[in-house]
Automatic annotation (TrEMBL), chain A:
Annotated PANTHER family: ARSENICAL PUMP-DRIVING ATPASE ARSENITE-TRANSLOCATING ATPASE, ATPASE GET3B
Coiled coil ranges: 138-165
Catalytic activity: ATP + H2O = ADP + phosphate + H(+)
Protein name listed in UniProt: Os02g0745000 protein
Source taxonomy: Eukaryota, Viridiplantae, Streptophyta, Embryophyta, Tracheophyta
Domain of life: Eukaryota
From TrEMBL, chain B:
Domain ArsA/GET3 Anion-transporting ATPase-like intervals: 25-316
Biological source species: Oryza barthii
Domain of life, per lineage: Eukaryota
InterPro entries: ArsA/GET3_ATPase-like (IPR025723), ATPase_ArsA/GET3 (IPR016300), ATPase_ArsA/GET3_euk (IPR027542), P-loop_NTPase (IPR027417)
Protein name from the UniProt record: ArsA/GET3 Anion-transporting ATPase-like domain-containing protein
Length: 264, 361
């Protein structure tokens, strides 16, 4: 059955432009609303003169992961995405994947801190304003942060739901790559992320006429595969072997070809 | 970008130019995941240790493969590599230390705000590490970096931080008095030492400014791009080189790893096909980067892991790899004839068996 297949590539540059456009459209209303909520609206206006937005010209590391999280949230909420039976994330290499998976926790804690700071400062400024007989409360920005925090909890739970989510580790048959995969699995286990399968890519296929190079390479790869079978972190996973083929795997027909081998 | 070989000189098919550039202080090694960055940065640091007084190799990739490459456990503090007296290694811990931003008063405020932004903790750790390394006075520092996209952000961060600190100082100048009043009202007057905090910020700003200038100086800093002869890696290398140019960071060395050479040991049809495929992209690399020094490293049948293997493999960084037997030489043709004779004998035996089988039928 030829089910429809869609693809999406996250573009941090584009997301940044969208963010800046949104900020300008509201005239910085978001930040101003938030600071108004703390009684610091005048300060926000003066801060605008410093052009802090320039800092966005060089976004910090981790932006890709943050955007990926926002996409996950979009999938959870938007009706237009409910048509997808399966969603596959092609994640960044190991280190950043771990950051991606821990980001909901991080953001949850971060938003908590921001809200706490807000309360602290708001109560102080309220004390000041009370002297002048003024009392204003602005809850919109804070409410939005609370909503965001709740969504973070949802995403975190989604990443650890054994019924609907699986993390598939992909590696190549070398000692270094398998060591890295073992560390990855250990971290995922600590995060309670479900992992069932390990794909080992670029395996030399069996051949009746081995050349000297292939014979040595095959022996080296076998040593790596044995390492998997003996590793306490990896031995429990279902092992799938993907062969090294003579043509380049690019384009849909080639991808289908290799896919039929791996996912049979 | 500077011509590695000097004016008019042909590009160098090795990394010797990096060893000969005595002014070099920062070397970044980066590329797509899975192309062999860590092997290359490990070997570069070994080679530099033979040419320079002291070398530090740092892994900024959260996956930390440096310990695997050297088969020695490294931490976030420089550790002497076994077998060397002037080569040190460390792996950066993404968790930022609270040393400089003790969690109290306004400093706690800054710390909490800093940690509230995804990725900034790691970038701050990078900045702290730069400050630390500056005071340790290594001749040259080699960075085994995270895969491409992330590396570009980290490299740019000193400039970002410099701008951020400028904003902070402007903020102080503008709101200094108000800030004092506010902190007193918040009940932080006794805890907050504004001058000490700002002093630390200014100190960090000075270090970051210095490092930022050094990163843009081709005499002091260069980026070595590691790739493999495949389409995705070529595409990503081009993206990396473009971004580095935008950041004004020098790049004039490319290492093409995992190259299959047409030699005696490589006879299978599968590998022959892959050689042909790789050659297409190697040609494109040479066309696109005709003024870069391009080093081609052979794909070995066995993994390069551990100091001894790294040392052995390092010769390919200094001398272009020669196939075991050149096509067309007497020895090579004799060997080919010998192989063909064996194959012929095998085929004849098979034919005899088939004929006998046919007669019986």
């Amino acid at each position: 059955p030829e089910a429809p297949l869609f693809a999406l590539e996250i573009n941090p540059e584009k997301a940044r432009e969208e963010f800046r456009a949104a900020s300008q459209k509201n005239g910085g209303t978001g930040v101003k609303d938030f600071m108004d909520g703390m009684g610091l609206g005048v300060l926000a206006e003066q801060l605008g003169e410093l052009k802090l937005g320039e800092l966005l010209d060089t976004p910090p590391p981790g932006l890709d992961e943050a955007i990926a999280i926002s996409k996950v949230m979009q999938f959870l909420e938007a009706q237009e995405y409910s048509m997808f039976r399966r969603i596959v994330f092609d994640t960044a290499p190991t280190g950043h994947t771990l950051r991606l998976l821990s980001l909901p926790d991080f953001l949850d804690a971060s938003i908590g801190k921001i809200l706490k700071l807000r309360s602290k400062i708001a109560s102080a400024t309220s004390a000041i304003k009370s002297v002048f007989g003024q009392e204003v409360q602005q809850q919109d920005a804070a409410n939005k942060l609370e909503q965001l925090r709740e969504r973070m909890v949802q995403v975190r739970e989604l990443f650890r739901d054994t019924e609907s989510t699986e993390f598939i580790i992909v590696t190549i048959p070398t000692v270094m790559a398998i060591s890295e995969s073992a560390r990855l699995h250990s971290s995922l286990r600590n995060e309670s992320v479900p992992v069932k399968r390990l794909i080992v890519n670029q395996i030399l296929p069996p051949s009746s006429s081995d050349c000297k190079f292939c014979a040595i390479k095959r022996k080296d790869q076998t040593r790596a595969l044995d390492m998997i079978r003996n590793d306490p972190e990896l031995m429990g996973l279902n092992l799938i072997q993907a062969p090294l083929v003579d043509m380049e795997i690019r384009g849909v027909p080639a991808l289908k070809f290799l896919g039929d081998i791996v996912w049979k | 970008m500077a011509d590695g070989g000097g004016d008019g000189a042909m590009p160098d098919p090795t990394v010797r130019n990096l060893l000969e550039q005595e002014s070099l202080k920062w070397v970044f090694v980066g590329g797509k995941g899975g192309v062999g960055k860590t092997t290359c940065s490990s070997i570069l640091s070994i080679l530099l240790a033979s040419a320079r007084q002291s070398v530090l190799v740092i892994s900024t990739d959260p996956a930390h493969n440096l310990s695997d490459a050297f088969q020695q456990r490294f931490t976030k503090f420089p550790t002497l590599v076994r077998g060397f007296n002037n080569l040190y290694a460390m792996e950066i811990d993404p968790k930022v230390e609270n040393d400089d931003f003790a969690n109290e008063g306004m400093e706690g405020f800054l710390s909490e705000l800093t940690n509230a932004i995804p990725g900034v903790d790691e970038a701050m750790s990078f900045a702290e590490m730069l400050k630390l390394v500056q005071t340790m006075d290594y001749s040259v520092v080699v960075f085994d970096t995270a895969p491409t996209g992330h590396t570009l952000r980290l490299l740019q961060f000193p400039a970002t931080l410099e701008k951020g600190l400028e904003k902070m100082m402007a903020l102080k100048n503008k709101f200094g008095g108000l800030l004092n009043q506010a902190t007193r009202l918040f009940g932080l007057g006794d805890e907050l030492n504004e001058d000490a905090m700002l002093g630390r910020l200014e100190g960090m700003k000075d270090v970051i400014e210095q490092v930022n200038r050094q990163f843009k100086d081709p005499d002091l800093t260069t980026f070595v791009c590691v790739c493999i002869p495949e389409f995705l890696s070529l595409y990503e290398t081009e993206r990396l080189v473009q971004e580095l140019a935008k950041f004004e960071i020098d790049a004039h060395n490319i290492i093409i790893n995992q190259v299959l050479f047409d030699e005696e040991a490589v006879e299978s049809k599968l590998l022959k096909a892959r050689i042909k495929m790789q050659q297409k992209y190697i040609d494109q690399f040479h066309m696109l980067y005709d003024d870069f020094n391009i080093t081609k490293l052979p794909l070995l049948p066995e993994e390069v892991c551990g100091v001894q293997a790294l040392q052995n493999f390092s010769r390919h960084f200094l001398t272009p790899y020669k196939a075991a037997l050149k096509r067309g030489t007497v020895e090579e043709v004799e060997q080919r004839v010998s192989l063909l004779k064996s194959a012929l004998q095998e085929a004849e035996s098979e034919l005899d068996r088939l004929r006998k089988g046919k007669q019986v039928a």
